From TrEMBL:
<keyword id="KW-0560">Oxidoreductase</keyword>
<keyword id="KW-0479">Metal-binding</keyword>
<feature type="binding site">
    <location>
        <position position="476"/>
    </location>
    <ligand>
        <name>Fe cation</name>
    </ligand>
</feature>
<protein>
    <recommendedName>
        <fullName>Dioxygenase</fullName>
        <ecNumber>1.13.11.-</ecNumber>
    </recommendedName>
</protein>
<feature type="binding site">
    <location>
        <position position="180"/>
    </location>
    <ligand>
        <name>Fe cation</name>
    </ligand>
</feature>
<dbReference type="GO" id="GO:0046872">
    <property type="term" value="F:metal ion binding"/>
</dbReference>
<feature type="binding site">
    <location>
        <position position="228"/>
    </location>
    <ligand>
        <name>Fe cation</name>
    </ligand>
</feature>
<feature type="binding site">
    <location>
        <position position="292"/>
    </location>
    <ligand>
        <name>Fe cation</name>
    </ligand>
</feature>
<keyword id="KW-0408">Iron</keyword>
<dbReference type="GO" id="GO:0016121">
    <property type="term" value="P:carotene catabolic process"/>
</dbReference>
<comment type="similarity">
    <text>Belongs to the carotenoid oxygenase family.</text>
</comment>
<dbReference type="GO" id="GO:0010436">
    <property type="term" value="F:carotenoid dioxygenase activity"/>
</dbReference>
<keyword id="KW-0223">Dioxygenase</keyword>
<dbReference type="Pfam" id="PF03055">
    <property type="entry name" value="RPE65"/>
</dbReference>
<dbReference type="InterPro" id="IPR004294">
    <property type="entry name" value="Carotenoid_Oase"/>
</dbReference>
Length: 487
């Protein structure tokens, strides 16, 4: 049964931009759906919500569109007692509410010059619209929606998907937060960082489970940087200072051109969870860039930091995908990251590093109860090369050996970041299910939830739930255990 909650006709001219067409084309409906078609048997031993974030612009973009510009929309599948309920909602950011009142887009996007006449802007240089479209993590019985280049954290009910409030960072004498901040499911604490083009170039902090400030400190960096993620272990956090950032000379003219500076090393700052800048131990490594961390943990005197590391941090100036005027932009979406491991020795100060697997993978996930602890398994998506960013398959890795098991989708089929959902009463790390939303443009955008047995990824989904509307390509996802949800 499909109930339409909101139906907004979208009159968006893609202007030949593939990031507004096909698998990326936005939708204008918010729905509730129950009693959906199920192919296979829906597991009855699971309780929680799979929530995925992503861009879904409501108005014609002001200038050239980048997927980080699209208004955040959440898609959620609640699974309980062998039944499935689907909902989707726009995250009601302050910026979206202002644009709805104006009836048009107000902010230029990531690819345009900032409009410094606007009354309010967000981001690492106070130059962007905060769309809260990038990451989503469980926190305090809700989910927290966050923006790629630093924004306000929005609390959303994982069952209703109603936007409830903003955590007021300014009232706590903190700044914005980056997209990839992390919740420790064991303590309920939230670990975050932000970065800015003006000093302090980075800050780091911790929130208590009730959203109040527990810890906050400034981090010294040589200049403005553009880190994307962080890691946590039982006792430490790992912050990134990587040589992909804005051209400092162009930045003086308010031009935000990202460049790779291979003459600079990658640096990783390891500090105690409640440490300050004075407690950081910096480790140097080969120049590179990391969008997403798989997991981190402690082994004796070493910190192990598993990541998806880009082989080509910045595409050559003449790199192109397709033949439209957006071809060079799409080249940035050809993510060629590999499963990569760093070891930081806290006693000797030495770094060892190397590739675990040469497959192009990204958007990693694990059983989140093992975040910060040594995990046996992780799950990534395969990234096909030579086309706009597409999640083309699901890969399971064994941490100790790097061995992989994979399931690949056909061309024009878009998976989402997978999540691992533990079974009720699970005692083993891989006792549960892996799931992902899948949009099939070969079937006019037919979208399904695919549920996998993690031990048999290569055999395909054991269950498929047909969703009565299309779910466009998106970014990050999380699993919210039913036992943690507060209504």
């Amino acid at each position: 049964m499909k109930e339409i909650v909101t139906d907004i006709p979208l009159y968006i001219d893609s202007d030949t931009n593939p990031l507004l067409e096909g698998g990326y084309e936005p939708i204008g409906t918010e729905i509730n759906a129950t009693d959906m078609e199920v192919i296979g048997t829906l597991p009855a031993d699971i309780d929680g919500v799979y929530v995925r974030n992503g861009p879904n612009p409501q108005f014609q973009p002001r200038g050239r569109y980048h997927i980080f510009d699209g208004d955040g929309m959440l898609h959620a599948m609640q699974l309980k007692d062998g039944k499935a309920v689907y909902k989707n909602r726009w995250t009601k950011t302050r910026a979206l509410e202002m644009e709805r009142e104006a009836g048009k887009a107000l902010w230029p996007g990531l690819l345009e010059m900032p409009d410094r006449t606007l009354p309010e802007m967000w981001g690492s240089d106070d130059n962007l619209k905060d769309v809260a479209n990038t990451d989503v993590v469980p926190f305090g019985g809700k989910v927290l929606c966050m923006f790629y280049q630093c924004g306000e954290p929005y609390l959303v009910d994982p069952i209703t998907l109603e936007t409830e409030s903003i955590i007021d960072m300014d009232a706590m004498d903190a700044r914005l937060i980056s997209a990839h901040s992390r919740t420790d499911l064991h303590t309920g604490e939230f670990y975050f960082f932000d970065y800015h083009t003006k000093p302090p170039y980075m800050t780091y902090g911790v929130l208590n489970p009730d959203g109040t400030k527990k810890h906050f400190t400034e981090i010294d960096l040589p200049a403005a940087r553009l880190p994307h993620d962080m890691g946590i272990t039982d006792n430490y956090v790992i912050l990134h200072d990587l040589p992909l950032y804005w051209d400092p000379e162009l930045l003086k003219r308010d031009i935000h051109k990202v460049c790779f500076f291979p003459e600079n090393p990658s640096r990783f700052g390891v500090l105690p969870r409640l440490g300050t800048n004075e407690d950081i131990q910096w480790f140097e490594a080969e120049p590179g860039y990391i969008y997403h961390v798989i997991n981190s943990w402690e082994e004796g005197d070493e910190i192990v930091h598993d990541v998806c590391r880009m082989q080509t941090p910045c595409p050559p100036d003449d790199a192109r995908i397709g033949d439209t005027k957006y071809a060079s932009l799409l080249a940035w979406g050809a993510m060629d990251a590999q499963y990569y491991r760093y070891r930081f020795n806290l006693k000797t100060g030495e770094t060892t590093e190397g590739v675990i697997d040469d497959q192009c993978v990204e958007f990693p996930t694990i059983n989140q109860y093992f975040q910060g602890k040594k995990n046996k398994y992780s799950y990534c998506v395969f990234i096909p090369q030579g086309e706009p960013l597409r999640m083309g398959g699901i890969i399971r890795y064994e941490t100790d050996t790097g061995n992989r098991t994979e399931y690949m989708y056909d061309k024009n089929v878009y998976a989402s970041e997978p999540v691992f959902a533990p079974r009720i009463g699970a005692t083993e790390e891989d006792d549960g299910y892996v799931m992902t939303f899948v949009e099939d443009m070969n079937q006019d955008g037919r979208t399904e939830l695919h549920i996998f047995d993690p031990h048999k990824i290569d055999q395909g989904p054991i269950c498929r739930v047909v969703i009565p509307q299309r779910i466009p390509m998106g970014f990050h996802a999380c699993w919210v255990p039913g036992e943690t949800i507060k209504n």
